[in-house]
Amino acid sequence: MSDFWISEEPLDVQVVIERVTRREAGAINTFIGTVREFTHGKRTLYLEYEAYKPMAEKKLSEIGEEIKNTWPDSKTAIVHRVGRLDITDIAVIIAVSTPHRADSYEASRYAIERIKEIVPIWKKEHWENGEKWIGDQKENKAGIPSKEAMK
Question: Which keywords annotate this record (predicted)?
Fold first, then answer.
């Protein structure tokens, strides 16, 4: 099984961590994206995610290669959930292992920004008074943060 996949089932953090656990890694950084209840004062009831699965998994793998090229001693696993997600459900898990912690933090941040930028996953927000497909996952922040912005 690949280390980069789309799932219709609830996500398990431990499964993703196990994909990157190795003896030479002194750090494993995990990012867990969850469904929040309020966005800009608007109450969310639930979210629906859809993806073009073959392309989404290919792009997740591409992000893993980009991370490997930038942080050569890293190992990355990423899973994103699709379907209906309720408040507090996990939407995405990123795990990055590296020999030292600074690289794992940076690589993890890089991964979530790239997911929002290049992976074909769409989100439909359902509120108390309506619903809307969100085509741009970047929401308010565009691009990949520079190393200075991540400090």
Answer: Molybdenum cofactor biosynthesis, Transferase
Give the position of tokens 């398990």: 12
Task: Burial-class residue 107 by CB neighbours within 10 Å (0-12, 13-18, 19+).
Answer: buried
Q: How far apart are CA 115 and CA 146, in angstroms?
A: 16
pTM of the model: 0.89
- The Cα angle at residue 65 between residues 94 and 28, in degrees rounded to 5: 35
Where in the chain are the domains? 4-37+52-121
Residue 16 and residue 149: Cα distance in Å, rounded? 27
CATH code given to domain 4-37+52-121: 3.90.1170.40
Pairing relationship of beta strands 4-7 and 75-81 according to DSSP bridges:
parallel
- For the stretch 93-135, pLDDT in tens is 999 999 999 999 999 999 999 999 999 999 999 998 889 888 6
